[in-house]
Amino acid sequence: RGSRSRPSTIETERDFGAMTTGACAAIVLAAGMGRRMKSDLPKVLHRVANRPMISHLLDALSAISSERTVVVVAPGMTQLVDAVAPADTAVQTEALGTGHAVLAARDQMQDFTGDMLVLFGDTPLLTAETMQDMLTARSAAENPAVVVLGFRPDDPAEYGRLVTAADGGLEAIVEFKDASAAQREIGLCNAGIMAIDGNHLFALLDSVGNDNANGEYYLTDIVELARDRGLRCDVVEAADPVEVMGVNSRAQLAAAEAAMQARLRDRAMTGGVTMTDPETVWLSADTKIGRDVIIGPNVFFGTGVTIADNVEIKAFCHIDGAEVASGVSIGPFARLRPGAKLERNVHVGNFVEIKQALVEEGAKVNHLSYVGDARIGPRANVGAGTITCNYDGFFKELTDIGADAFIGSNTALVAPVKVGDGATVGAGSVITSDVEADALAVARGRQKSIAGWASTFRKRRKAEKDAAKTKE
Ligand code: UD1
Ligand code: CA
């Protein structure tokens, strides 16, 4: 196992392809109701790092070039069927156990004779590297028919135990409920993930019965059945037990989120990102960040964010669906919403919200502004408190600000409206019609001064107050 620097690059994906000796397919079990989640949403659709748990697995499968993937669902899980497309689904009509669930995919996999991975849909942290390790073990010289992923949890609790043979192979998997006291002492547990020779999988499953403590058809029984037929079984031990962490409850979902965030931060820092306080930075699975990016404390990244090189994101920014070019400075306390596109060297300062807007090279929006449905031309300066009034309660309209324009503080730009190149808008203006290039537009009451008014006023009011006091 080499270093694991940047697992999601295209080159790495090609490496996996080259390492796979034969074709591989995958069956992902997701028919469980996930009752402990107390949710109307199928368990595997709950999100980790802003992506459904099952999608993390499907991504890893595409990295190892799974030729065919079938997700086993329960009747009525239409939302799940839509979410996993284009992966195929098979319906397990009744939840009769993990072995029974795999059989639901039989029709789709019948003619497949390569390696078959069987995965559980609720293990979002499982990596493509580990899947590849299992396929590599499957194609070893000893030709094991079944390779099982093992791990040593701090508390083996109710996990199935792996019984190993004198020759180092795997003899059987015993479910906790069915295990003897001596077997329960075994620390090596079944993570639930298997790589199986496709020539044998369904024949082995046909022999699985349900004579056990749960009355279920256990996938795990195929190990003993394979041994009975003189086939070898092996164990691959997970390098990091966190990878096989299963999610059954909201608390475990939070634990998986924490583990995934740690992984994503680590990957970003390995790629050349500085984080002042990494544990307060929240990333999405698809967040893309370049080199020499500095991220301050308490920054949140939603989905669909791309940050180029040499960007500084100061504390307390919320960034979602935005594209940021190099040399940009954001925050503190800035919010970029979907469709915000900042070109090179743009400055976006505190308490600025930008939505569906193109901010062109070198433009500045530094304080207390809302910019929505707009274009801000190169080098334009948008003053403090400028608001694009983009919505009239019915339609969203565009604001277009030209190159080198200067928008005075506290300007309301009532869209649709255009400010020409090089134009200036006086502070406090409400701009309702287009401003010509290089013009000055001022739209507010003209200032009027009355000499001596204030001192006369003070004198009169003081006299009135004094008179009121003597009356008392
Ligand atoms: C299973 C393993 C156990 C292992 C543990 C690891 C078996 C018999 N036991 O136990 O050895 O240590 O996982 O977490 O395999 N599912 C279906 N249809 C079914 C039953 C389950 O699709 O009829 C799916 C579930 O949605 C879930 C997965 O299979 O994604 C695992 O099922 P679960 O009941 O959680 O198995 P465990 O009892 O945890
Ligand atoms: Ca489980």
Assess the beta-strand content as a share of residues.
25-35%
Instruction: Give the distance, in angstroms, between the N- and C-terminal Cα atoms.
Output: 93 Å
Helix content: 10-25%
Compute the CA-based radius of gyration: 31 Å
Number of strands: 36
The backbone outline, from C-alpha atoms, is elongated
Overall pLDDT score: 94
Which class best fits the helix and strand makeup? alpha/beta
Largest sheet: 12 strands, parallel
Assembly type of the chains comes to single chain
* Ligands, deduplicated: uridine-diphosphate-N-acetylglucosamine, calcium ion
Key descriptive features of the protein:
disordered N terminus, binds uridine-diphosphate-N-acetylglucosamine, binds calcium ion, 10-stranded parallel β-sheet, 27% strand, elongated, 36 strands, 12-stranded parallel β-sheet, 472 residues
Characterise the protein shown here.
The protein has 472 residues and is α/β, with parallel strands linked by helices. Helix content is 22%, strand content 27%. Strands 13, 14, 16, 17, 19, 20, 22, 23, 25, 27, 30 and 33 form a twelve-stranded parallel beta sheet that branches. A ten-stranded parallel beta sheet has the order 12-15-18-21-24-26-28-31-34-36. The termini are far apart.
